[in-house]
Amino acid sequence: MLRSGLSLALLAALAILPVLQAAEPHAPEVDPRIGTGGDGHVFPGATVPFGMIQLSPDTAMPDFKRAYKWAAGYQYNDPTIMGFSHTHFSGSGHSDLGDVLVMPIAGDVKLDPGDEKVPGSGYRSRFEHTSEVEQAGYYAVTLSDYGVRAEFTANRRVGWHRYTFPAAKPAHLLLDLRPSIYDYPGKVLWSSLQVRADGTITGCRTTRGWAPGRELCFALRFNQPMTARALYNRETDLPYKGFKGPGYQPQDQNAQNGRAIVGVFDFGKLKAPLQVKVAISPVSEANAVANLDQDGKGWNFDEQRHSAMEAWNKALAPIDMDGSKPLRTQFYTALYHALMSPSLSMDVNNEYRGPDHQVHRTDGFDFYSSWSIWDVYRAQQPLMILLHPDRSVDFVRSLIAAQQASPFGMLPVWAYQGLETWCMTGYHAVAIIADAYVKGIRGYDADKAMQAMLSTATYGDYGDLDDYMKLGYVPIDKEVEGGSKTQEYAYDDWAIAQMAKAMGKHDIYDGFEKRAGYWRNGWDPKTGFMRARLSGGQFREPFDPASAGYGDDYTEANAWQYSWYVPQDVAGLITAMGGDRAFTHKLDELFDAKVDPAIFKNVEDITGLIGWYAHGNEPSHHIAYLYDYAGQPWKTQARLKQIMDNEYGPGPAGLIGNDDLGQMSAWYIFTALGFYPVTPASDEYAIGRPFVPRATIHLGNGRSFTVSCAPFDDVHPYVGQVTLNGKPLDRVYLKHADILVGGELHFTMQAQPNRDWGKSASARPTAMSPYR
């Protein structure tokens, strides 16, 4: 609920005005290599902000048993490139996509990718990192085995390729519709490929991947005429027992279909670069052609590259940050990664595919999908509200549209290209919508949004919501991870209550505010941890707070990590734990514990350990800020420095865990600015400390909000005093309205902690329960 002198109407008006251009372009400061190694799971290729195309190299598309490291198709330490595909997730912990894979070939053509350990065994090629160029909106590499220079850029719906072949060898482009990230036998249900009379190549494929029955279509054109072509159906190569296919069928003809389609397009010896442009569509080949016609005009590759960089300059423009070159690279790369998802999933005729697998049409907004909602509701979406509120309007409208098309009346949980995967827990789309509403974002039907939220929160078959509504908790003998689901549902219910209160819907507010208190049903005062209960009411035994894994009480976490997840009522949690002293003592235990990372060897997502704190996974992301709520913000400041120093860095290994479609990066941006949205759907940000000397947020309304600090060095890590527009700020939270009206938040840093600032109960961020 907004607690300031500004009305919601005024906040809405301020929020949707256009963003001003930054004083200096920031796209050149982005380093897309950061996070491409280790568990970062980001891709280095070409895309534009929230674009439909992610055109990037794939170094491997291994089977599902070992696909985790290659969730983005690329791992920095791999020696070969298999090809270049047009769809990727940025930083996901699970994957799919890798659609429309192409590979330029000079000389003899092999139809299979081959073994990366055996050079020349297939069409894949070795490469050197020294030949790579990674920039915002542009990627280039030299394929060593072919001597081909490959360059890529993109716009919203089209991927642009430019290949420079050695003059002495014949040039070919291979198109393989078999591979897919997170591959397994029989994943491709059907595919088609045809050459149209005008030379346009079109096709579709249907897969039974993470989103079963996903169909993606494409249209491809060359800037030079083909000299020959061969389309193959290689279904006898499908690696599952008992299948009898028609055999290899090379055909110099116009069409081929089946489950293992490969096309090879020949161009002879070229004197000029071969250019290729590819459009995709989740709806149809006809729509893919229309996308290519409208968004793929002309053949000026360099102009498209420039346009892509300008799109990134515009998207990065809302923040001007002053700092050293390495710090600026770290900052703007994080912001770059936070601006990729959700991605456009709509054709130029406004058609998109919904979770019912049917084709729908928008009524004047852009439809976005790729929703890693369990992750991005925490910081990535609140960051969009702050920096790109106009885009947030379309995000909310997209969520509502998806719910309207859902066979279950559910808002998205983890969706991409319009389809639902049901991955992860909670119904946190309600928090995204409520956060936008409470912070003044308008431009959508709020009553329809509320109905979508209520329909989702009362669908009893989802995650045993039926028992949750009856018992006040999710019984672990009925539903895996019942402990964390109880806590997450309670927070989501609180978010619904806040929007209902702001809308004047007091009956809805009362009901969901009560449900928001169900977190207490998971609290076990005997052990001092949140736990899961059985249907009969007793806690499940035996209990080990270090235990983590599928089927346990918690989602991708243990009791040490999930017991802090009550963002809507931290004051109530403090009371349950025995007060400020006991609460902060247990927080210290969490961070200072000696933990062997091997304990989580079977839970890939739990990485970046500082004690039990796991920054590589989202349930920990708010924890360092909780000292603010117990009167010890100086400890928040110390823990944040520990996290920033240990969990982020330059180079391919610069992300300690998968970026989860921008959440890890958004955490960095907020924390670098000195504040963080611990509780989305409130109008407050918990104050930490800045990790940049000065940053200005351009609000687009003729105002700007600046964060500054001095001295800025490792010798002065603690906040001595904070002023807002020159006046001392005695609270450890910032209101959204404080930012929108503009001004300056200044931190005076010092060597020793200020143990008095933020100590009083009145200085702390608010919660459901009063501070005692």
Automatic annotation (TrEMBL):
Identification of the protein by name: Glycoside hydrolase family 92 protein
PANTHER family named in the record: PEPTIDE N-GLYCANASE PNGASE -RELATED, SECRETED PROTEIN
Xref: Pfam families: Glyco_hydro_92, Glyco_hydro_92N
An annotated Gene Ontology molecular function: carbohydrate binding
Coiled-coil blocks: none
Organism from which the protein derives: Dyella choica
GO biological process: carbohydrate metabolic process; glycoprotein catabolic process
Gene3D superfamilies listed in its UniProt record: 2.70.98.10, alpha-1,2-mannosidase (1.20.1050.60), alpha-1,2-mannosidases domains (1.20.1610.10), GH92 mannosidase domain (3.30.2080.10)
Signal peptide: 1-22
Domain Glycosyl hydrolase family: 287-750
Cross-referenced SUPFAM superfamilies: Six-hairpin glycosidases
Residue ranges constituting the Glycosyl hydrolase family 92 N-terminal domain according to the UniProt record: 30-281
GO cellular component, one term: cytosol
Superkingdom, natural source: Bacteria
Keyword entries, A-Z: Hydrolase, Signal
Database matches in InterPro entries: 6-hairpin_glycosidase_sf, GH-type_carb-bd, GH92_a_mannosidase_put, GH92_N, Glyco_hydro_92, PNGase
